[in-house]
Specification:
This protein has twelve helices and no strands. It has 285 residues and is mostly helical.
């Protein structure tokens, strides 16, 4: 048997690899990938930086810090104002203290004159050398006062400080009528000023030195009623009692003196001593 030769099979030929086609296929794949990518990926490659939503905790902390800074600024401003006010208050207190010391010295001198005038009026020869010397001093002062002419008050300085100063000088010089006119003019112009209480008290002094006890009592009484916080209040109360005693109203004088510890519990030792002396002279129980 004769074997027949099978025909030789033909080899399968594949098309040759084309590089150009491969590149085009890759580009097509990338284009498809970009087209199908989510929109967020576009922000990654965008020129505008991505900004996320604000964090509520961070915003709350920022607002809290800003509030604290505002509170600190207000506290600092208030502290500076308080420091300035304290400095001004200290300055005013120092000036007031200096004025009070001068007023106390003036009052002491005026009180000595009143005591000597009363001793001279009583003719109390048993008063001792001290009163005798004071009587001589007042006698000389009274003679000088009689020789002094009345001062035209309109010619004095008319500002508040100047008028009060000149009226006080007239009182210290023994020119009591002119001093009375000066204090009366001052109160007419500056009755609501800060120095009105002092002028009211010194008006009472000028009247008391002229033995005008009734008007002096009225002047001291007005000081106590119109200027209850005046530092001259304790002395005015004593002088009111003295004026009443010299008007032979010792009972009323004692009633006035009974008000001292209630109305002026912080009165100076000098005022308390004057009150004690006045009680003895008025025979207060």
């Amino acid at each position: 048997m004769t074997l027949q030769r099978m025909p030789r099979s033909r080899a399968i030929r594949y098309p040759a690899f084309d590089p150009v086609l491969a590149v085009l296929a890759g580009l097509a794949f990338l284009a498809a990938a970009f087209a199908l990518a989510p929109s967020a990926s576009g922000q990654v490659f965008s020129s505008t930086p991505y900004v996320g939503p604000p964090d509520p905790a961070v915003e709350q902390l920022r607002n809290r810090i800003e509030g604290l800074e505002s509170d600190l600024k207000r506290a600092t401003d208030r502290s500076e104002k308080l420091a300035y006010d304290l400095s001004q208050a200290r300055k005013i207190a120092e000036e007031a203290n200096a004025g009070r010391q001068k007023a106390d010295a003036d009052i002491a001198a005026l009180t000595a004159r009143v005591e000597a005038l009363e001793a001279g009026g009583r003719g109390d020869s048993a008063a001792g050398p001290a009163v005798s010397n004071a009587r001589s001093e007042v006698a000389g002062g009274s003679a000088a006062g009689q020789s002094l002419s009345r001062v035209d008050i309109s010619q004095l300085p008319q500002d508040e400080e100047g008028l009060l100063k000149e009226a006080r000088n007239l009182l210290l010089d023994g020119n009591y009528p002119s001093a009375q006119e000066g204090f009366t003019a001052f109160l007419a112009k500056y009755g609501k000023g800060s120095n009105a209480h002092e002028a009211q008290y010194l008006l009472g002094e000028s009247l008391l030195y002229q033995d005008n006890y009734r008007e002096a009592a009225d002047a001291y009484g007005k000081l106590l009623s119109s200027y209850p916080k005046s530092p001259n209040g304790p002395n005015a109360l004593v002088k009111l009692a003295r004026s009443l005693r010299l008007l032979n109203k010792k009972g009323d004088a004692c009633k006035a003196l009974e008000l001292m510890p209630k109305q002026f519990p912080k009165a100076s030792d000098a005022a308390k001593q004057l009150a004690s002396t006045e009680r003895q002279r008025s025979n207060c129980k």
